[in-house]
Amino acid sequence: MNIVVCVKQVPDTTEVKIDPATNTLIRQGVPSIVNPFDKNAVEAALQLKDKHGGKVTVMTMGPGQAKDALKECLAMGADEAILVTDRAFGGADTLATSYTLAAAIQKSGKYDIILCGKQAIDGDTAQVGPEIAEHLGIPQVSYAAKLEVDGDMARVEREHEDGYEVLEVKLPVLVTVVKSMNEPRYPTIKGTMKANRAVIAEMTKAELDVEEMRLGLKGSPTQVRKIFTPPARTQGVLISKDTAREAVAELITRLSAAKIV
Amino acid sequence: MAVKVRIDQCVGCGVCVSGCPFGAIAMKEGKAEIGDACTVCGACVDSCPVGAIEQKTEEKQVAMDKSEYKHVWVYIEVDDGVLRNVGLELLGQGRKLADTMGQKLAGVLIGDGIAGVTKDVLAYGADMVYLVEGPELAHYSTDGYTAVVQDLINTYKPSVVLMGATTNGRDLGPRVACRIGTGLTADCTDLGIDEQTGLVAWTRPAFGGNIMATILCPDHRPQMGTIRPSVFKKLQPDYAKTGEVIRVASKVKAEDIRTKLVEVIHVCSASCNLEEAEIIVSGGRGMCKPENFVLIERLAAVLGGAVGASRAAVDAGWKPAMHQVGQTGKTVGPKIYIACGISGAIQHLAGMSSSDIVIAINKDPDAPIFKVADYGIVGDVMEILPILTAEFQKIKAS
Q: Looking at the complex, does the CB of residue B82 fall below 8 Å from at least one CB of chain A?
């Protein structure tokens, strides 16, 4: 079974802070990590490989430094890594990104399953996965919490607002996974050493069967108009009393006065 | 569009470097240099104190006659014959957009045996309804619904399409946008009309809610976006209103749907219907152990509200992921949000800061949650919750 996992290198948004003086993001010291949901996707791929055999290829689109993310996935146990990189890909929105990745997946050979995290924590769009499936013309199942493969059929439990739906679909299929699907394994020392030595294949525009006008900024229908820091909610009253009873009484008085209760 | 530094004017102060939300600017030989990560957002243009950065509009490929595309559409999900709230909320906001643009507002309904709800769509603000019914459409499927929406868009050419940012909305939106070849802005928390261009201005949080971005889709139609539940308010329904219902025959055949729905498992009761709850009581790490969530559940039950949990509480296995509020969980906007033992990490705030009233209980007076709380109690949540529950019970009884 050939499994392709699409990953993204993202800034660890839990470490991002706002400079209160300038109201801008402080990026210094913010580590780059593999998007957490993508690690669940890598783990899902490795579990399928453990059970059914095959090959796991991780792929990312990004600048040279995104190789670090690929190496982390190799250290977890992925077999191959491909960096899709070119100046022409810069400034891509989800449509241009998915177009480029779909072309790279097609170029990389035969695939049975494509896995993605449900969304990336920097953009949170959850769009690139479904759009890759559309470019490739294959079915998709998003928000998967469980994935089993039997022959050429996949059985997926898809997380929903109030439960799950169980879907069956013939391979090839693209599946995006949620956090509760699994616990990503840690890289082994052996795996890390192997990953450090690994040569990461690069695919540039020249290697892909793509139209220039559909790449990067040029191929992106959406445009950022402006960026701003969200208006802060204002702090209200802070009740600090000697006993819990007094504090609750104070709260109820205030809520009643404001006609909230 | 491109952003350029006028090298002769750059004084090398570096303000743009820290001001760039994408880390795309570096100082090279004392001058700012814009790298590959640039998304042309223009943040640096505004931040440069000497006006040395300019944003230029480049020729883009425009193969589309945009004037053909008119009117605002809202796709409204129907769940077991009931319209999802977010769809009705979007009719309210869609009404405003349509009025500003001087165009019509249409509701799009897809399902089987759902003609009865068209009157609700009209009552909540739509001028007309597109209704597509068929046995294959009784339940949502990516393939079936994508084909229907694509067909509708190609036939009737709307200028704007709004969808709820629900599980299915976020599954359908990208598939449709990609097939049509247009832009889609995900998970918006605000919607307006950009004064300068007359385009829809889609505003959404990014970087875990640390920044907001306003997105435009200038050259492609329709302009599409998914919008979070509970951001906009429903209009007062007016059942005296009438409008045209256009029935469109479904071309979808059973074999077009490549995913087979085997089973639907409902595991949640009202307590986890966070998106539509008016009151939410949420617990975090400060609840100390899973058993203590009973205190949260009791208060929620008394108030008739839903139960939420922070990421820390979900990661610890105290509550299933369906209860998680925050960036990687659910986004909620209830009338009252009660945060119990939740410190208020930015990820959590991103999921609940559109609540009308926030009440926070935490023993740390410096907890960030207090910065967004209308009412904060500094104290032991385990002690306070039972008393608070008893007080609310008294109020309810009286």
A: no
At B145-200, the pLDDT tens digits run 999 999 999 999 999 999 999 999 999 999 999 999 999 999 999 999 999 999 99
Q: Which amino acid is at B223?
A: Q
Pairing label, strands B357-362, B306-309: unpaired
Asked if A193 has any chain B CB less than 8 Å from its own CB, the reply is no
Confidence (pLDDT) at B346? 82
Measured at the alpha carbon of residue B257, what is the angle toward residues A57 and B266, in degrees to the nearest 5? 85
How far lies B187's CA from each of A174, B19, B225, B251, B300, in Å? 22, 24, 7, 30, 27
- Among A91, A167, A247, whose Cβ lies nearest the Cβ of B384? A247
Would you state the pLDDT for residue A259?
86
Cβ-based neighbours of A44, under 8 Å, separated by 6 or more: A115, A144, A147, A175, A177, A181, A182
Model pLDDT, residue B123: 98
Q: Give the span between the Cα atoms of B69 and A7, in whole angstroms.
A: 36
Question: Using the 8-state DSSP alphabet, how is residue B58 labeled?
Answer: P
**Residue A172: closest C-alpha in chain B:** B258
Spans in chain B with pLDDT lower than 50: none
The average pLDDT across A130-156 equals: 97
Q: Please give the torsion angle defined by the CA atoms of residues B139, B141, B146 and B152, in that order, rounded to the nearest 10 degrees.
A: -10
What confidence score (pLDDT) does residue B60 get? Answer: 54
Q: Give me the pLDDT at residue B57, please.
A: 61
Report the DSSP beta bridge partners of residue A140.
Answer: A174
Asked if residue B105 lies in contact with residue B122, where contact means CB atoms within 8 angstroms, the answer is no
Q: Determine the Cα–Cα distance for residues A10 and B206; give it in Å rounded to an integer.
A: 12
| Structure token pair of residue B157 | 């050419």
Query: Which residues, numbered 90 to 109 in chain A, qualify as contacts with chain B under a Cβ-Cβ cut-off of 8 Å?
Result: 90-91, 93-95, 98
What does the pLDDT read at residue A229?
Answer: 81
Burial state string for A19-46 with b = 16 or more CB within 10 A and e = fewer than 16: eeeeebbebeebeebbbbbbbbbbbbbb
End-to-end alpha-carbon separation of chain A, Å? 60
Chain B residues with CB under 8 Å of A131 CB are 174-175, 177-178
According to DSSP, the β-strands at A9-11 and B375-378 are unpaired
Neighbouring CB atoms inside 10 A of A17's CB total 14
DSSP three-state, residue A112: coil
CA-based radius of gyration for chain B? 24
Q: Does B392 touch chain A (CB under 8 A)?
A: yes
- pTM value is 0.89
Could you read off the pLDDT of B331-356 as tens digits, one per residue?
788 899 999 999 999 889 888 987 88
Q: Which of residues 39-58 of B touch A (CB under 8 A)?
A: 39-43, 46-47
**How close does chain A come to B241, measured CA to CA in Å?**
32
A135, B178: Cβ pair inside 8 Å?
yes
Sheet holding A223-228, edge to edge: A223-228, B211-216, B200-206, B190-193
Beta bridge partners, B188, equal B227
Beta partners for residue B110, in sequence order? B132
Give chain A's mean pLDDT. Answer: 92
Whether pLDDT at A176 is above 70: yes
- Containing H/E element for B132? strand B128-133
Q: What's the CA gap between B269 and B55, in Å, rounded? A: 51
